[in-house]
């Protein structure tokens, strides 16, 4: 019986870190572009379709790299009938990795003729 109790306690100790790691960041993303977005990505997380004026919640994220008060990587999403130019890799100067916290970001759009760029803004 003592051996069984020891095995159970050991199993609990081994599982506890895996249940808490990667669940310290919660993120809300608001679509403020005025368009329905398809194939939306937040870093390496695929969000799929994001209707205009809608919100999506993310959790279970290990860390996020921030540049000031917004994510380092630009948002990605496709808009039907519009051309999206190639996104260059952002500069990581003065970027910081965050491992915990709750964050809220808006996706905005910058349009020039039939092309567009998506960008982040801290939600207020």
Could you walk me through the main structural features you see in this protein, from its secondary elements to its overall organization?
- The chain has 124 residues and is an alpha+beta fold.
- It has a single domain (23-122), classed as Immunoglobulin-like (Sandwich), CATH 2.60.40.
- The chain is 15% helix and 48% strand.
- The protein has one helix and ten strands.
- The chain has a four-stranded mixed beta sheet, with no helix packed on it. A three-stranded antiparallel beta sheet has the order 3-2-7, with no helix packed on it.
- It is elongated.
- The mean pLDDT is 83.
Mind sketching the topology for me?
Layout: H1 2-20, E1 25-31, E2 37-42, E3 45-50, E4 55-61, E5 64-67, E6 70-71, E7 76-78, E8 95-98, E9 101-112, E10 115-122
Parallel strand pairs: 1-9
Antiparallel strand pairs: 1-4, 2-3, 2-7, 5-6, 5-8, 9-10
Termini separation comes to: 57 Å
Major β-sheet strand ordering: 4-1-9-10
The CATH C-level name is Mainly Beta
- Which strand-content bin applies to the residues? over 45%
What is the rounded Rg?
Answer: 19 Å
Overall tally of domains = 1
Question: What tags apply to this protein structure?
Answer:
124 residues; alpha+beta; four-stranded mixed sheet; three-stranded antiparallel sheet; 1 helix; 10 strands
